Amino acid sequence: MNFFDRLQQETASERDELYRVPQIVDGMQGRITRETYIAYLTQAYHHVKHTLPLLMAAGSRIPPEKEWLRRSFAEYIEEEIGHEEWILNDIRLAGGDAEATRQSVPSLPVELMTSYAYDLVMRRNPVGFFGMVFVLEGTSTALATHAAEAIQKSLNLKKDCFSYLLSHGALDVSHMQFFERTVNKITNSTDQQDIIHSARVIYHLFAEMFRSIPHERTKEAA
After folding, report:
1. pTM here?
2. Could you write out the DSSP letters of every residue in 152-203?
3. Could you read off the pLDDT of 150-168 as tens digits, one per residue?
């Protein structure tokens, strides 16, 4: 079994837990309000704005004997520039207050998720950050396009309000293909275990982030 398949297998229960969160289940069916969608984007902004600094920090801490991995981080850095601004623009176009989002504080799960990621990169093992990449990229590829289309239809919002979700959805499978090729080259057992462990932690905290988003089920979904 290659490492990517092992990573999927050993994080299956945490992934299933995430996919059962009511906010995600209802979002996939377009059964959320505009306020819930904007609340989701707000929390997404608060973790996405840390992606670039985390990638830069992780890349800078890769030891010389793993130089090839630094190049992988560099490719991710190039891809992730400016994504937090896409989210703010989606909020603005959906009728939310983008500037208030910029000045707001994250929910506790997002605070813990980003703090955990910084601690992992700065104190423990920067290679372990691939666990967070796996969760965020994999979840987006699996769910984002479907959710965006369902929410757009139910809320009658313009496609411009979904640039973040659509750019990270099923059409962007190249990211996961690149990720799979990269982690399959990681053979150090400690690195592999740190990636698996961090993915489990991030899955749990990501699920808690969604649970923290204010959401009342519609009559149709109840």
Report:
1. 0.93
2. HHHHT--GGGGHHHHHTSGGGHHHHHHHHHHHTT---HHHHHHHHHHHHHHH
3. 999 999 999 999 999 998 7
